[in-house]
Amino acid sequence: MTSKDKRNHEISESRALVRHAFGLAQSLGISKILVQVEEPGDFRAIENVRKSENVLWLARDPELRFKLRRGDAHIVIPDTGLTRLSQLNIALFQAVVKEHIALDESVVCLTGVVGSMRLDTLVIANPKRDFPWFKRRDLDATKTVVGSREFGRIIDIALRFSSEGREGKAIGSAFVLGEPEELHSHLRQLILNPCEGHARKLRSIHSEEFLESLREFSALDGAFVVNTKGIVESAGTYIDAPAKKVKLSAGLGARHTAAASITAHTNSVAVVISESSGCVTVFHDGRAILELEKPKPIPRPRS
Q1: For 191-200, how does the pLDDT look when each residue is reduced to its tens digit (9 = 90+)?
Q2: Strand pairing partners for 280?
Q3: How far apart are CA 215 and CA 235, in angstroms?
Q4: Residue 137 has pLDDT above 60, yes or no
Q5: Which of 173, 280, 269 is closest to 222 using CA atoms?
Q6: Would the CA dihedral through 286, 292, 293, 294 be positive or negative?
Q7: Is the dihedral of CA 55, 100, 78, 85 positive or negative?
Q8: Whole-number pLDDT of residue 5
Q9: What is the DSSP letter of 51?
Q10: Alpha carbon 156 to chain centroid distance?
Q11: How confident is residue 303, by pLDDT bands cut at 50, 70 and 90?
Q12: Which one is predicted more confidently, 271 or 167?
């Protein structure tokens, strides 16, 4: 089979999967379908089969929203090589937080290997049923800290650091997002704060230029403390919070315990990169609410 024949076969497979997914949703009375938009590469494959279903587009490229049908919702996820399951985890998490999907609503999900340009996976998900962090009753409180642009940016940075590392070595680090005044009593500076004295705009997590400084500072022991405006207040910061209210999975170490502990005592969220596994874990209210596997490099077309 030539490469052209193989590609045509893969396109046919994707289209067949789309047809069956919409047919399944219609037969089960499921009104919402989540589609990873980059992989099919052909909006017509969706438009040809959709009827009254609401399509929720999952995209790595935020500019794709301009190509969508007016009224369709979209979710932007980090442009990293997330596994199929991690793509769905972060998409469903955001969909519930942004109220695109109800907490106890089933949704058909279509996704594929990042960069493959084909859909190959169909999942019927229900956030409350399938994901432990949605079984809590304090979802409204969670929304206030994980529904922000700053939270999304920290997730993006953590996944990039996990995938790329630093000078060929794995990165292990933690980010705490919250109000500095509330966090202050649980923090202690291990070294002179390398962020102190620099202009706020130069310490913004939204600055691509500052990203490499963050990568270098990740070699320091301790955590990054980020305020709710996305300004890094400190690096190399020791978290000193009681671990009595913390619930952790087996195998997680001191960095995860400290991150979970500060979220148990403050209205903050912590994002931890595991140096050993590369997994990214999000903590709120003393427990993990989101776990993402280490991304793989995305195949990029040569220019």
Answers
A1: 999 999 999 9
A2: 273, 292
A3: 11
A4: no
A5: 173
A6: negative
A7: negative
A8: 67
A9: S
A10: 7
A11: very low
A12: 271
Measured CA to CA, the distance from residue 158 to residue 156 in angstroms comes to: 6
Fold that domain 139-292 belongs to in CATH: YojJ-like (1 (3.40.1700)
- Per residue in 52-79, pLDDT tens? 899 998 888 877 766 667 778 888 888 8
3-state SS assignment for residue 55: strand
Place of tokens 């409350």: 128
Write the CATH number of the domain with boundaries 3-134.
3.40.1380.20
Structural domain boundaries in the chain: 3-134, 139-292
Distances (CA, A) of 76 to 105, 121, 155: 21, 19, 12
Residue of 207 and 40 predicted with greater confidence: 207
Query: Comparing C-alpha atoms, which of 137, 51, 130, 52 is closest to residue 91?
Result: 130
Q: What percent of the chain has pLDDT over 70?
A: 91
Tokens at residue 135, please? Answer: 């079984």
Alpha-carbon distance of 6 to 1, in angstroms, equals 6
Quickly count helices (H) and strands (E) in the chain: 9, 12
What's the pLDDT at 43?
Answer: 67
Same fold, 3-134 and 139-292: no
Entry pTM: 0.87
Count Cβ neighbours within 10 Å for each residue of 59-85 and write b for 16 or more, e otherwise. Answer: bbeeebeeeeeeebbbbbbbbbbbbbe
Torsion angle of alpha carbons 103, 105, 110, 115, nearest 10°? Answer: -10
pLDDT for position 138:
62
Copy the structure tokens of residue 187. 């923090």
